[in-house]
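[SOLVED] Need 3D model of a two-part complex

Original post:
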Amino acid sequence: MPNGKTQDLLTSALKGHDAEYVEIRLEESSLTRITYRGKHLEEIGKTSSLGGNVRALVKGGWGFVSFNNIKNLHNKVELAVKQAKLIGKEESKFSPTQPMLDRVTAEAKKSPMNIPLATKKELLDEYNDLIMSTPKIQTSTIGYHDSQKKVCFANSEGTYIEQNRIDVGLRLAAIATADGQVQQVGLSIGSLGDFSAIEGLQPKVKELAHRAVSLLSAPQAKGGEYTVILDPILAGVFAHEAFGHLSEADHVHENKRLQELMVLGRKFGSKHLNIVDGAAVPGLRGSYKYDDEGVPATKTYLIREGILESRLHSRETAAMMREKPTGNARAINYRYPPIVRMTNTFIEPGKVTFEDMLSEINEGIYAKDWYGGTTSLEMFTFSAGEAYMIRNGKIAELLRPIVLSGNVFTTLANINAIGNDLDMNQGGGCGKAGQSPLPVSNGSPHIRIRHCLVGGS
Amino acid sequence: MDDILSQAQKVAEQAEVFQATTQTTPVRFEANRLKQIQTKESTTTALRLVKNGRIGFAQVNGFVKPKELVNMALETCIFGAEARFDFPANQAYPSVQIFDPQVDRLAIEDMVQIGQQMVDALIKHTPELVCEASVSKGITSVHIANSQGSKAVYQKSFFNLSLEGVLVRNDDMLFVGDSQSSCHPILNSETIVAEVTRQLELASVNAHISTRPMPVIFTPLGVASTLLSPLIAAFNGKTVLEGASPLKDKIGKQVFDKSFSLWDDATLPYQVSSHPCDDEGVPGQCTPLVESGVISSFYYDLQTAALAGKHSTGNGTRAGGLPTPSPSSLVVNQGNVSYEDMVKDIKEGLVIDLLMGAEQGNILNGDFSGNVLLGYKVERGKVTGRVKNTMVSGNAFDVLKKLGGIGKDARWVGGFLYTPHLYCLELSVATKEG
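Solution:
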């Protein structure tokens, strides 16, 4: 990226168009990936990228141009405006924000950029050896990445922001086989710029390899309805899938019936239920100072004391719904326009201890750790990496991985205990409209849900 | 490109440069209205080296400085995996038709009109539906050159229609949708509109189903959402090599129902997953994976094939890193049972279009478990309505072991799977009580 002159370059390219709004984003990034499969390192590679995009608004219609060749930005602005004009037939709706001038450096407690490849490989070798030396383990997969990214953003309202971020991620899986059966257990860790988040995992890695082996002889849950306790990681995924996506205003803003369903003030759960999203909390994987429209990050109560209080917005959805922008417009990279996304989503802690929660259950399921999750807004499914039967108030036998499913409108109301032990999971990535995996974090204390549908034999 | 290759050859034993330039133009409709027109251009250049027998890799998106790219790749060579293959020598590629100049010539205004027709047709059918649609066209140019003297160059055109609708009634939401891809422009939206209309009609009333094992018909969309991921994982040469595929020692053995055959085909004309060569310059081919229930082959890239003592099947695919095996178009053979006869055969059962979350289970073992996002109840030989709050669980390999029938008619799903309906005699179904 042309050093120091980027601001002048973007400002001059933004001159002389007749659109209502235009923005330009230039992005420079570099990525290191290391993967293992089985005993051996499979791939080590480096990628660097330079590209950008222009977005233009004319009478409610959007033109979007993305490119790798950053020359002739003026022509790209012209093309985006021309495309927007082809569409625009109505009045644009776009919330006003203050023009901003800022430069944000990357948060990096222990930056992976300063750590030699050999040291990274040494750590991963150690984890892989721990998995592969466990009896009955057939193979492993390890995926490590670190990346740094610089984004320069300018718009026709006078905003110019430079933001830098560093991301680290590690996913480990142990795969055990016996008699034609294959079982796997995974672990996913991430951090905003802190390599130490993925250090010192030896005990966890050992445990996951042993659990993969135990799953070979574990029974499958019987399908049906159960009272379930979710651990903080899985409950965080639940908050993200079951409610977070429904709170994204782009699903709601042009659908009148859905607006009636998601009317602010609607009761969704007990008065102990509070669900929050916000990038303004520093140091988490979904944290930033400005979103990809240059709007400052906030902290938003989606549900406060069981009542729907607000939702997540871009500048356009906020204007359409006559609400305030929340700084949730995000683009995974320059190839995509920003859309409404979550950041750090969590259920606030209550007062119940895990032991009390457990002691009241005769037969139920304790589901832990994240494997995956998805939503259709109304219906959601998410899967637990680890699950146990609960019998007579105690944790009993290990189960094969389970998939839980429910309907958001009834399930939130079925939460009947919220723990006191909030924990955030940094290992997740969120997918929406082809933009995946976007770094997010989610979390919760332990929660207990009645009548939860579990798939099984 | 030549400059990168010649600089790389000076410092490494073997080298390969891969370059892809793509231009796409998506036209997007939101909430029944034209909302956004995009133009996307991207260029990716990747360099793979072999030095001291080890593989190095680097990729640049955007402007390339050859020396920097070579140095980045060299830095990774020291730690890289041992290369077990040679890059392919210069050879003839099959003629695979994947370029239609009409795609490039189609005006944006015409794409807008096709999108509007799709949305209008659905709204006419169900006025309270809120639709999203997109009409996209694009062209990719691929160049591959390596130090063995091989050069591959091809251009592919692609076109895609996608149509989704959401219907909200009280606390009840219904999602319907489909997509269609081709290397030709798709000027007629009747097929996709007819499919989404079929979904709307079958789902017009809700029906309650029992919690118990019952027969299930997977529509082609249902096959894609439920059974495909376990098959893709199990036939991947890499999964087999590591011993993590349940099919690893089953070559030549009768594992699936005699009526079931499956193959991977990169040579089908004007299909978006077709190509004359894969991303490492190996000719595209048709590879039988299952023949009448017998496992016949797995799919490979160069390195995996070399490690397994096999030949690459032309399935080396890039997704931002080194090539790795991935299928081109998967094709399931057509059978002799009509969908209507499958339905008639069922006392109580399900038809599944979309099982949400099915791929979140232990797919290596073939297990799936998901929520029936779009599925219908069959009662005494008739489809009686849409099923909700219902989970279906099973094992893809068990399903294919004993099929109740394979459909007569097949269709493309998502440009990568051609399949008929599959009739499964018994699956576990769990539903919310009351």
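Edit: The longest strand of chain B covers residues 33-51.
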